[in-house]
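lol ok so funny story. i was supposed to be doing the assay writeup but got distracted and ended up predicting the structure for this chain instead. priorities right. anyway since i did it might as well share w the group, maybe its usefull for someone
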Amino acid sequence: MNSKSGIGKKNAYWLNQKVTIREILFAGLVVICLMPFVSPPLALLLGVLTAQLIGNPFPALNGKATHLLLQFSVVGLGFGMDANQAFSAGKEGFLFTVASIFGVLLLGYLLGKVFRIDPKTSFLISSGTAICGGSAIAAVSPVIGAEEKQISVALGTIFILNSIALFLFPAIGQMLELSQSQFGIWSAVAIQDTSSVVGAASKYGKDALQIATTVKLTRALWIIPVALFSARIFKSGNAKVQIPYFIGYFVLAIILNTYVPFVHLAGDWIVALSKTGLTLTLFLIGSGLSKELLKSVGLKPVLQGVLLWIAISAGALWAVLRLV
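and the output, tada:
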């Protein structure tokens, strides 16, 4: 009897829950973002407006949902890529990756000293800019023992710049008449977060998307050595390093698409579904940019992020124009 009574109380609890207008509006926007006419930049803009006007009614779930959805979407994009072309793209972008990562980390350290920014906050911003945005910050922060405030400031800085990059980079690429290959490498090196890289590249063209995704995920593997390096610098050798295992699934998807015929036949459908997932991911990222988060960032961290972003964008653009 007690068990039945407990179940009855649970059912009554859920039946009595009220759905707010804000939750209905948010759910409606999620559905809109699943429509084919909504582009990644538009989804991000809708998310940012949602955060400022009505707020995200599910803040506790937003981060986890964004993380998982991005990983599934990126792996799905692998089903639209050819292994030989992907290997060539990754090889071509390797030197850019190595030079830019170490260059950004060094410049970030110097800027942090000049602006007197908290060392851990400065390092998180530098790591996010150098490797892959929010994923790098999430991986490095437990290793260096970063506090919630430091993580929020770094994430806020990176997300603000990524929002701008998603609109700005395709326009600059078209103005400079960059090729698909040039834009793919440039965006993968210069835009911090994987979601914004894929969003900008997908807007530029199919070949740019393939190159950008491959180069960016090759770059993301540098999370591991940078995190180990971070543990030594901040003297936290016992901390665990989070390895981005989903990159292995992305590589497996490329191999299956290239060498297994029936998988290749379903590739276009899977890629279309993945692009929809990416669009929804960008909406969720935008909806997480609350007024409180924006206010907490502060001027100096944003200035550090902007200067690092300009440096890596200009350097990578000069390199691709000369070498690619």
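The two ends are 74 Å apart (CA to CA). The chain has a mean pLDDT of 85.
back to the writeup now i swear
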